[in-house]
Amino acid sequence: MGYSPLKYGCYVFVFTIIISLPTLCYSQESSKATYYGSPDCKGTPTGACGYGEYGRTVNDGDAAAVPRRLFRNGVGCGACYKIKCKEAECNDDGVEVVVTDHGESHESDFILSGQAFAKMAESGMEAKLKAYGHVNIEYQRVPCQYPGNNLMLKVHEHAHYPNYLAMIFYYQAGIYDITAVEIFEEANLQWRACRRAYGAVWDMENPPKGGLTVRFFASASVAAEAKWVVVANVIPLAWQAGVVYDTSIQLS
């Protein structure tokens, strides 16, 4: 008898399958950082991750674009990093940023939003620090934290009901990478793999009909375990482009 991960009664069930895999240790590394201009010094809504307006405001606008080796064809979207500047004008606290874009800059692994760059400076030294253009830094990947926010699944604006579904995750907490997304097809009792369209956007032509059950693979990092997370009926029957749906779970 086939497995059907559906909603029973009025309850939505979330299933987690733990898979033991080798874990990664994120050590502190040295590099350089610079910044980009934006009207409000926050993130950019046109970033390569596909976040849109969320990419401008997530983490209160402390965002970053990263080069190919950290962007990883979109796998790096949503990752958080602690960055500390090493110049005399810098404070000891540094800044935590979220990856929302891909960008290449001479010798710099991080292109920060203007306000994130300024937060690395001692009070009153922001303009002087920005005058450097590129600054020496130390950085380390850290868990993302979104207190009070569940993992959200947005049907992307590029989606067209009912024949083309595109979606993206918001508030990806913890230190996981989402490396695969699948949708359950009830008619054939099987999982169908989504394609990573670009950045953090996943899509599928001719998705299954009805309320959609989604599962995603959260790959392990540091002390975390890799796992499949199943969210039943997270996308309703008559889904709409641009609407954000609550998964009722938090990654940590």
Strand order of the largest sheet: 2-6-3-5-4-7
Shape descriptor: elongated
Tell me the helix content: under 10%
Structural class: mainly beta
Query: Strand share of the residues?
Result: 35-45%
Q: Which stretches are poorly predicted, pLDDT < 50 over at least 5 residues?
A: 1-14, 17-25
Continuous helix count = 4
Q: Count of DSSP E strands?
A: 16
How is this structure best described in words?
This protein has 4 helices and 16 strands. The chain has helices at residues 53-57, 68-71, 114-118, 126-132, and strands spanning 14-19, 29-36, 63-66, 80-85, 95-102, 110-113, 135-142, 152-155, 164-170, 177-185, 190-193, 195-198, 201-205, 212-219, 226-235, 244-246. The strands form 3 sheets. It has a 6-stranded mixed barrel. The chain has a 5-stranded antiparallel sheet with strand order 1-15-14-10-11, with no helix packed on it. It is elongated, with a radius of gyration of 19 Å.
